[in-house]
Amino acid sequence: MVGTGLILGVLAVLLAWPVPVVLVRARWPARSPALALVLWQAIALSGGMCMIGALLAFGLAPAGHDLVSASTAVLASVGGGIDPGSTLGVLSVFALCAAVLLGGHLLLTLGLTWRRISQRRRAHRDALRLLSRPVTRDGPESDNRMRDGTVRDNTIVVDHPTPLAYCLPGGTKSVTVLSDGLLQALEPGELDAVLAHERAHLSQHHHLLLLAFAAWRSSLPWLPTSRLALGAVTDLVEMLADDEALHTVNRATLVRAIAIVGGASAAADGTSAVDAAGTSDDGPGAETTGPVVGTDPVVRVDGVEADAMATPRRVTPARVTRLLRPQAPIGALPRAAVGLLSLLLVVAPVALLA
């Protein structure tokens, strides 16, 4: 068990620092963003299991040679009224307590992050009810610029000059928010591109993926790679949404839409329509930042994203380059290798402990 703990500890260190740094610097994720997202999830999940597993292995080492037998022996001694400290030793008991605390901390942070995000979304949705109007075929002239194919009941418009568009997830209450400035700045085809991009975020449930990485960032803020992972995953979901938009419009139209919205938002002050109207109530320690480019505004609590979808929608060089100079996805053999690596990362900690 001590050897297992050492191996898991080494894996935890590798997955906490060098591996994410190498992946962030790699160029292939822009060619296959969905596969890169799978690998990021495997790294995050395996890293957590390795940290907890290493502590469990060190803690249970005096009681057995594998997780099942050692755990059974410890539970039997506790049931028999024997002090675990006398059987395992002080250091082993400390390692077991640390494993339980770390696992509880990760799960509790995930739950609290979900609760905080849900509350903020409800408040945001309530504010939008007061500030927005639904998009209708017979509405104002700016609304009529939207073709019939893009008119949806879950699309609303806010009166704000800055071009912005973002999605607010909420199950059946999910909405896509547009501004008057966006409707005025874009041609119908470009507007179709923006709407297709936002609807892709909702249909592919990117908010759930970002929720997990936002919780990881919040639970381990001292870990630099948790910040790198959140930024990388945010960029990858933007690329996936761009790819989905390309099924609706051509590449040139999408690039123009990104350039217009990104340039206009960067020149503006970067506040959302809700905040500009003075109705945002983020509470102590919260702030809204911008610019808003492609999706919803950024809401941070104590420096950490408070909404899984409220992360910076940056028009990164990699995102623009892949649209201007498209490349084929990585080959079948590299795809299989990455898929196998992702599977091994998840299975390895469990197999080692068993």
TrEMBL record:
<keyword id="KW-0862">Zinc</keyword>
<dbReference type="GO" id="GO:0006508">
    <property type="term" value="P:proteolysis"/>
</dbReference>
<feature type="transmembrane region" description="Helical">
    <location>
        <begin position="88"/>
        <end position="112"/>
    </location>
</feature>
<feature type="transmembrane region" description="Helical">
    <location>
        <begin position="36"/>
        <end position="61"/>
    </location>
</feature>
<feature type="region of interest" description="Disordered">
    <location>
        <begin position="271"/>
        <end position="295"/>
    </location>
</feature>
<keyword id="KW-0645">Protease</keyword>
<keyword id="KW-0479">Metal-binding</keyword>
<keyword id="KW-0378">Hydrolase</keyword>
<feature type="transmembrane region" description="Helical">
    <location>
        <begin position="332"/>
        <end position="353"/>
    </location>
</feature>
<dbReference type="Pfam" id="PF01435">
    <property type="entry name" value="Peptidase_M48"/>
</dbReference>
<feature type="domain" description="Peptidase M48">
    <location>
        <begin position="156"/>
        <end position="215"/>
    </location>
</feature>
<keyword id="KW-1133">Transmembrane helix</keyword>
<keyword id="KW-0482">Metalloprotease</keyword>
<keyword id="KW-0812">Transmembrane</keyword>
<dbReference type="GO" id="GO:0004222">
    <property type="term" value="F:metalloendopeptidase activity"/>
</dbReference>
<dbReference type="InterPro" id="IPR052173">
    <property type="entry name" value="Beta-lactam_resp_regulator"/>
</dbReference>
<feature type="transmembrane region" description="Helical">
    <location>
        <begin position="6"/>
        <end position="24"/>
    </location>
</feature>
<keyword id="KW-0472">Membrane</keyword>
<comment type="similarity">
    <text>Belongs to the peptidase M48 family.</text>
</comment>
<dbReference type="GO" id="GO:0046872">
    <property type="term" value="F:metal ion binding"/>
</dbReference>
<protein>
    <recommendedName>
        <fullName>Peptidase M48 domain-containing protein</fullName>
    </recommendedName>
</protein>
<dbReference type="InterPro" id="IPR001915">
    <property type="entry name" value="Peptidase_M48"/>
</dbReference>
